[in-house]
Amino acid sequence: MATATETRARSRSIPWRAVGAVGVGLFGLGLAVGSYGAYVTLLIASGVGPDAAGFGMSLFLLGQLLAVVPADRLTRTMRVERVGALGLAGAGIGIAIGASVTLETTYLSRLLLGLGQGTAFVAGMKYVGLRTAGADTATAQGMLGALFTLGLAVALAASPPAVDALGPTAPALAAAASTLLGAALTLRLAPVTGNSITPVRAYIEPFTSADGLALGLGNMATFGFLMVAATWYTDVLAGVAVPSVVILVGFALATVLGRGLGGWLSRGHGERATVAGSLLGLTIVLGGLAASIAADSAVGIAAGLVLTGFGFGIPFGPLFSLAFSELADDPGVTLSGMLLVGNAGALAYPWLVGRLLTATAGYAAGFAAMGLSVGAIWLLWVRTIGH
Prior knowledge:
Blueprint: H1 4-10, H2 16-34, H3 36-45, H4 50-74, H5 80-97, H6 103-130, H7 135-166, H8 169-187, H9 210-238, H10 244-269, H11 271-295, H12 298-313, H13 316-326, H14 331-346, H15 349-360, H16 364-383
């Protein structure tokens, strides 16, 4: 049952102050996540193996995986905005630690960032969800997702030249400052309490049904593989005769635009068909990217990297929209289930691409493995939810 605070809050339209406060923090998280590729390049240049460098992003995904259920349960016993501020503060500290680029500090930084982001994402989405209703909920949550993606997009394009010009410390501290500012602003938001405690076994539901697995693995192919892109795209472009900053800007814009395009396509074709079509398209693009890398085709590599931005961006909104109607009535359980399945599935890929790079001296095998994985998810999708 909603509290009196929630009832009054729901009578208002989109809480722009809340979107701005949480969004500043999520923008900082996006900066930290999107800049990781530049730091991977620094680690490799210092003699760290590619698989060990890529494992930092796996630790980030592990942190999110470990945080989502405790974060949701915290929102049921604490005020939601306090849980969000706690997550942002922890992530900000983790980002700052990453300003010192050694393998040990990188691992600690990425793990803390993952724990903080998992907590902040769950609490932030629930906070605006509890203060809105209907279309306003989708708009407010979409704005939060877009602000995170915008930060990631900016960092993907700007972090390589920024790190080259300023060194690794300044970009990391800038991302930490935005995240910590978001924590301070979120802590001052109007109080909102979450819903009642739910049994722990409810969080297992997404793993026990074909629909739940399809939705979670769809999240893996979008958000999870976007993390692979943030880890490796900078290094992929290091040896390609194309303007890398232009390609990264193109990829970033495609990812941000894809978030909006997914909603537009859903209105015309429905969420199920939009997700199915985008997963099939992403399978083809990743396969083409792997072939272009194997053939050392600069044009093919550039086109493939940009087009994956649409593949990661378009299904994101429709997937979460379907999840709220397909998995459970409790939004916290639904959101946690999506993140649990998606992050668990994506966990190995940042390391796997680096491992295959070490074994084959190229990225073709890693992106081929991603393409085959998305193809399998598409097949599961059309046989379950997409039928």
